[in-house]
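Action item from last meeting closed. Structure (336 res):
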């Protein structure tokens, strides 16, 4: 007799099958234990991104997604956050430009309506003032009427400058020479008494294509605001530098009282001013903003209460391509 009992062999096969099944089951369980956290680690950021996208579609510009790692999902999250910030800034700029355009149309109508009555008041009050004798008690009142009417006409002129169509007459402009001309023009004003103007000009700043008359208005406004923010004197610093081959940067910094944080977002809004009543119309920085935008540039402000304010103007080196004619810009064009 040679061989083995079949029952023994069957028992061995059955035992082997059971062990294989147990090992397979253990492997499946271990794979599930390992796979579930990994799957959650991968899908949770995706779910957060989907939820953030839904909130963004509903107009929530404050939504951000956390960045957990350094992989592809982290890059995707960072890109989403950058996109939201860019969209928010663009939305704010568009709203501001639409507001400027509406205010420009309103200002033009108001200015034209009240300009003629103001001229009549000024004419007759001036005639009455000249005809009144030196001891006439009404003479002081007439003088006040003339002064206040003249101030109103100045405001109306600012309104018209803000609302009117303006053409960018681009030409080769030396920024340093323009700034020197502006400083020479404003330095004799009473508000600049005790004010030191420091120049930090970059020697390799290129000439730019710009409208020098309009840029003069920009820097006159910025310098006047800086001087008025430093009652009793201080320092205004003018800094120029090339950003790259396409852009140049001009900074106007002062050591004045600074601007409250809640007012920084309102500075370029028409008729908003932090100056005392009667000392400002709130149109200067709106004009500055419009001129910079017509030059396809940027203007930003940084301020700290008690330490000073810095306005940063960024301008294109080449405003128009060779042979291109400067377009006529209106307040509505600023929206573009």
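Sequence:
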């Amino acid at each position: 007799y040679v061989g083995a009992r079949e029952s023994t062999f069957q028992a061995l096969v059955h035992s082997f099958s059971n062990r294989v099944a147990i090992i397979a089951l253990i492997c499946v369980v271990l794979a599930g234990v390992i796979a579930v956290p990994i799957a959650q680690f991968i899908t949770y950021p995706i779910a957060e991104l989907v939820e953030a996208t839904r909130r963004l579609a509903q107009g929530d510009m404050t939504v951000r997604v956390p960045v957990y790692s350094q992989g592809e999902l982290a890059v995707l999250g960072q890109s989403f956050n950058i996109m939201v910030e860019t969209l928010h800034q663009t939305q704010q700029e568009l709203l501001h430009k639409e507001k400027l355009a509406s205010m420009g149309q309103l200002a033009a109508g108001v200015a034209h309506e009240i300009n003629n009555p103001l001229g009549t008041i000024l004419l007759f009050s001036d005639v009455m003032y000249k005809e009144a004798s030196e001891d006439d008690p009404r003479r002081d009142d007439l003088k006040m009427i003339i002064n206040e009417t003249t101030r109103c006409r100045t405001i109306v002129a600012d309104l018209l400058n803000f609302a009117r169509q303006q053409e960018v007459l681009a030409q080769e402009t030396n920024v340093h020479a323009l700034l020197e001309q502006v400083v020479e023009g404003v330095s004799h004003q009473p508000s600049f008494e005790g004010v030191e103007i420091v120049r930090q000009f970059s020697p390799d700043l290129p000439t730019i294509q710009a409208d020098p008359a309009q840029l003069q208005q920009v820097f006159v406004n910025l310098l006047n605001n800086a001087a008025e923010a430093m009652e009793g004197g201080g320092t205004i610093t003018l800094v120029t530098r090339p950003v790259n081959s396409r852009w140049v940067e001009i900074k106007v910094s002062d050591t004045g009282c600074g601007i409250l944080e809640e007012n920084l977002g309102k500075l370029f809004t028409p008729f908003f001013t932090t100056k005392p009543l009667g000392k400002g119309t709130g149109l200067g920085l709106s004009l500055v903003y419009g001129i910079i935008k017509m030059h396809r540039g940027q203007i930003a402000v940084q301020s700290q209460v008690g330490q000073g304010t810095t306005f940063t103007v960024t301008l294109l080196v080449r405003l128009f391509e060779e042979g291109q004619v400067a377009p006529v810009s209106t307040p509505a064009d600023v929206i573009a």
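Note appended to the action item: The chain has seven helices and nine strands.
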